Amino acid sequence: PPMIKLSDYQAPAFLVRHVDLKFCLHPTATRVFSRLECVPNTGKSAFLLNGEELQLISVEIDGKPLADDALILTETTLEIAADALPDGDFTLCCETEINPEGNTSLDGLYMSKGMYCTQCEAEGFRKITFFPDRPDIMATYSVRIESDEPVMLSNGNPTASGPGWAEWHDPWPKPSYLFALVAGNLVSYDDSFLTMSGREVGLKIYVRPGDKHRCEYAMDALKRSMRWDEQVYGREYDLDLFMIVAVDDFNMGAMENKGLNIFNSKYVLASAEIATDRDYELIEGIIAHEYFHNWTGNRITCRDWFQLCLKEGLTVYRDQQFSGDQRGHAVQRIDDVKMLRARQFREDAGPLAHPVRPEEYIEINNFYTATVYEKGAEVIGMLRTLVGAEAYERALTLYFQRHDGQACTIEDWIKVFEDVTGTDLAQFKRWYSQAGTPRISVKEDWDGNTYMLTLTQKTDPTPGQPDKQPLVIPVASGLLGSDGTELHSTEVLVLDKAEQTYRFEGLPEKPIPSLFRGFSAPVIVERKISNAERAFLLANDTDPFNKWEMGRAYALDLLSVLATDAESTIEPDFLNAMATLLEDQTLDPAFKALALSLPSIEDVMDAVRQGGGTPDPMACYDALSRLDTAMAGRMKGTIEQIYNALDNDGPYTPDPQAAGERSLRGRLLGLISRLEPNVETAMRHLAHADNMTDIMQALPLLIRAGRPEAKEALGSIYESWKHNDLVLDKWFAAQAMATPPEHAAEAVAQLTEHPDFHWKNPNRFRSVIGVFAMANVAGFHRADGAGYKLLTDWLIRLDPVNPQTTARLAGAFETWRNFDDGRQALMLGNMQRIADLKGLSKDTGEIIGRILE
Ligand code: DPP
Ligand code: ZN
């Protein structure tokens, strides 16, 4: 398959001003009639339309059929010869037939449990009709749907309807990837919103009958998002109606189609009994994310797919700001950084590393990555730190003013900041083009009066980028005195050379630095700190992020030793520091839960590698168990006391305060269970649970302990919830994740035999195969290769059905070079099995190809 390159971008030869679509829906033979109002753009040339898996019935220009020799039809394109086109504007009418039921890729128009729905980002519209399917073609759309389905929806405002038909009109020009259609037996949960200028907007969440009572939280999150975007960014909603539809078969989390967001049901439906606190938090964040796209993505879109971060980085940044405002910024920041490190740093350090704005791709769906999204958001956060909150606000106002209705580039985005601040951001812009995570080394000097801090930056080579340039790195720093007072409050140092020294004069004593406060840049700080200094900062830093960070660094230091020498002793100072933290009355429970948690097994494996070793996943797993057990032993009495005090008899509420208390209680339950071979506290926790959060805190502990009661609990949850897919997903995931690594592969293989393992459903596939490969790390990496074989067998089966989901999970092999020779050989052999497949999708082929390169 061809490599698409940013440097090859050419403006479209023709624009489309308006699109009329008529759908006669049928499960296996849907007719699509399109009428495109086309306008020449770059001079006389052939008109290239995309089209895949379409049956062409007829095509006409200005009402006249085209001669056969005026058309070239391939598997993926329809080309109309230049001399068959009139000079000036023309109308192109096309009739095609498609098969929604046969479309298992969940891209284009497909069916989910009898309901018609669409997914067009990035290139799904071409599976619906012939169209120049690229985001720089923005058109208004009028849509007519004909079918027997009770509900028929499309973008924009409803204009007319009758028995068996409905018409919609979207007045805002949009790219084809934002087109959506839904038809089925749905009910709506309704509300309304009064915008800042006093317009009333109807809000509707469409779900299947029976799910209506699970929409309240999503609706509340939507209204808070709408208000927040008005108050913080001055953005008002622009249609009479905003709709969300929940769909069970969906490749992504959700999709921001204009006026008609389509969501994976797991990010809409919530009630105490089916959703955990984490689910509520994700629903809130994703509802906000998709809603915020209305301005950052829809009104201002991307010129081409290389600019994906223009909408995604900014929209993630905005949803993180929103969630921080709703739930507290310290905890939000820690969660965001944990995720950034777990996914983006790992991506940046391996064969799939790519810049925030990639320069080439084979399949764009493979670039909906942590780098584009999460690092893209970090880059915006740094920009805001560097220019200041006030200039950021002016730049955004100018961005909306200048580019509304346009398809833009990162150059447009940067220019807005340059114009507002009068500074040259050429060097800053390297964050968009240079892949890899910078490593910062730190040197300190103290002469009795002046403290000198020397920072050096270095970025390792990444695929295709051997030489790296210095970046502009904001270093938010404070200095502490030995008694814990702040000698120098937070200041943003700008590191924009390979090495720089910063001087602080007139200090009474040699300070202790607190660097990269709030994680002010997505970098790896390589600073040798003693554990005594870590303990000091853990106790005294005024910056909550660094407070947490120091506990994490301390734990990682101990864990990497434990993972290489199981006999080594655990420093009591660490355990004492954790005990002090637990008892600290000034810390909020959600923060405490994070600070008392241990790093992930992958973090431990990375720490072992940084120390020059080759990590053994099982030894890392055991190291974590041992440290956890030691913490539990040290804090025994206090944990039980606080655990009991946190027992809340009131009804479940999903608010951040209650969720924070539950998360601390869950962490304490985990610790208590380390000391109880019969996990009796976890048993009681489960027996008393009246909500899914409590169930999912206790259940994995029973499964891990191998208790017969786990089987009973799983059986009774199954009996109560076998008709609820979201609960069943959790039921599968808990087993795939918590089964002890020694026999996880067998347990997961057995789960795939379960009659409810509907492997063509992405949520179900991910909750068994995905969770095993990504969240049962030691089990997946078992030395005999059973985990690799299991994943590979299933990827081979899924690829012809759903290439997008297959390619994504194939990323589980991205760290293969971090392991010992034996595991490397096993992973290589399995990847080779995939690479050798006849008819392998270009999605999976690209990912495996890049990992093997
Ligand atoms: N729906 C995906 C998102 O919102 C892709 N745009 O990020
Ligand atoms: Zn998005």
TrEMBL record:
GO MF term (any one): metallopeptidase activity
Record's keyword terms, sorted: Aminopeptidase, Hydrolase, Metal-binding, Metalloprotease, Protease, Zinc
Superkingdom of origin organism: Bacteria
Reaction it catalyzes: Release of an N-terminal amino acid, Xaa-|-Yaa- from a peptide, amide or arylamide. Xaa is preferably Ala, but may be most amino acids including Pro (slow action). When a terminal hydrophobic residue is followed by a prolyl residue, the two may be released as an intact Xaa-Pro dipeptide
Residue ranges of every copy of the Peptidase M1 alanyl aminopeptidase C-terminal domain listed in the record: 532-853
Enzyme class: hydrolase
InterPro entries: Aminopeptidase_N-like_N, Aminopeptidase_N-like_N_sf, PepN_Ig-like_sf, Peptidase_M1, Peptidase_M1_dom, Peptidase_M1_pepN, Peptidase_M1_pepN_C, Peptidase_M1_pepN_C_sf
EC numbers on record: 3.4.11.2
Gene Ontology BP annotations: proteolysis
UniProt cross-references to Gene3D superfamilies, sorted A to Z: 2.60.40.1840, 3.30.2010.30, Neutral Protease Domain 2, Peptidase M1, alanyl aminopeptidase, C-terminal domain, tricorn interacting facor f3 domain
Domain Peptidase M1 alanyl aminopeptidase Ig-like fold intervals: 436-527
Ranges for domain Peptidase M1 membrane alanine aminopeptidase: 217-431
Cofactor: Zn(2+)
Chain ranges passing through the membrane: none
Aminopeptidase N-like N-terminal domain segment(s): 96-178
Similarity comment: Belongs to the peptidase M1 family.
Protein name as catalogued: Aminopeptidase N
Organism listed in the record: Algicella marina
Gene giving rise to this polypeptide: pepN
